[in-house]
Amino acid sequence: MAKFEEDSQSESSDSALAVLHKFTYYLAAGLKILKTKAGQAVNNQQSV
Fold first, then answer.
1. HSE (CB half, 13 Å, CA atoms) of 32?
2. DSSP characters for 1-43?
3. Residue 30: φ, ψ to 5°
4. Residues 36, 41, 45: CA angle, nearest 5 degrees
5. Coil vs helix vs strand at 48
6. CA neighbours closer than 13 Å in the CB half-sphere of residue 41
7. pLDDT tens digits, residue range 15-41?
8. How far apart are the first and last CA of the chain?
9. Rounded distance, CA 36 to CA 27, Å?
10. How far apart are CA 40 and CA 35, in angstroms?
11. What angle do CA 5, 9, 12 make, to 5 degrees?
12. The whole model's pTM is what?
């Protein structure tokens, strides 16, 4: 019984890690897009 509990626990921590990894990946991608858009807006203002 204890072995089964260990297995399920390691599985849930693995999936939590995967979710965290995905979250940080999307967060980084989102920040990159925001930075690019902000940079374009600044460039547009400077050219006017």
1. 6
2. -HHHHHHHHHHHHHHHHHHHHHHHHHHHHHHHHHHHHHHHHHH
3. -65, -40
4. 145
5. coil
6. 6
7. 999 999 999 999 999 999 999 999 998
8. 71
9. 14
10. 9
11. 140
12. 0.54
Q: What is the spatial distance between Cα 44 and Cα 34, in angstroms, rounded to a whole number? A: 15
Tokens of 31: 């920040």
**Six-digit token pair at 37?**
């858009």
| Closest to 20 (Cα-Cα) out of 10, 28, 31 | 28
Residue 30, token pair as written in the block: 């989102």
* Cα(12)–Cα(37) distance, integer angstroms: 37
